[in-house]
Sequence to fold (350 residues):
Amino acid sequence: MKTHKLALIPGDGIGVDVTDAAMQVIRAAARRFGFQLDCRTLPWSCQYYLETGAMMPDDGIETLRDFDAIYLGAVGWPETVPDAVSLHGLLLPIRKAFNQYANIRPHRLLPGIEGPLRSGGFDILCIRENTEGEYSGAGGRVHQGKDDEVAVETSIFTRAGVERILRFGFEQAQARRGHLTSVTKSNAQKYSMVFWDEMTRQLAPEYPDVTVSHMHIDAMAAKMVMAPESLDVVVASNLFGDILTDLGAAIQGGLGYAASANICPDGSGPSMFEPVHGSAPDIARQGIANPVAAIWSGAMMLEHLDEGQAAAAILSAIETTTGRGIGARAGSHSTAEITQAVITALEEQA
Ligand code: GGG
Fold:
């Protein structure tokens, strides 16, 4: 029987609640589809930071290298640890260390969910560049706290980094409806974003079966609200992708439905799976967090681990659950009720 070695980082706040929910469903799928899980839970979080002075141990990355996949709940507890510390201490170093340069975020309405838009017929796959760009972490501050203080933060776009994410986007478009929208702001950002546009044009002839559109981020934000059904695969830089996918989450009913995968496409390191949402301290440990995004992210993890049947079954069980009105409206059901409903739907399929 195949065994998948998983590192679980529940993290902070509702990250703990939804990781537990996702793992209950994944374990149910493992029983049904005949694979084993060898899980290790790592307590890396803001609480860990308060106890040790770091979000993860010095050998954290080396520890993670041994796993087939990483599952992450959420990071952040701004009351005690600044967000920039927690993010740069855990999530971002993992993405960078394992070359998880493709962050995949699907946006579509699940059955039974009423999004805020009149039209529900959209199915968008956002591909966010995940290791460089505006999140490169290159910069500094001088004369801190003084009148002449200066803060500089440089976005870094490398040819290798831009080419590989664009190729990933083209390939995803080939596997779907054959349309790629590349999002930049090349009228204002005349170096990095013009370079991104040029790279897109340079690569396009290699993918003759893909039609390409170029859009500026502001126009794209409007399009995702006004005509989301016209979009297929969308590729964008790190920050632009982050912002667009919160908009994507909003049109699919909320952050509780937005799943994501941080993929290391060449397999040189483990990939990491996480719901798009953060730790939501205001509702942590109340048993009311929506676990759908976390469970869907778990299905994406199983797909990545070559358990396609189990992944499809979980997604179908999620659809049955929301179709039955369970977890389809904010606050209508508890985390435990939604999780149990997904497991029940999974068992009914058998
Ligand atoms: N579920 C992971 C999480 O906690 N995300 C919160 C967040 O702020 N992420 C930053 C990012 O993805 O750029």
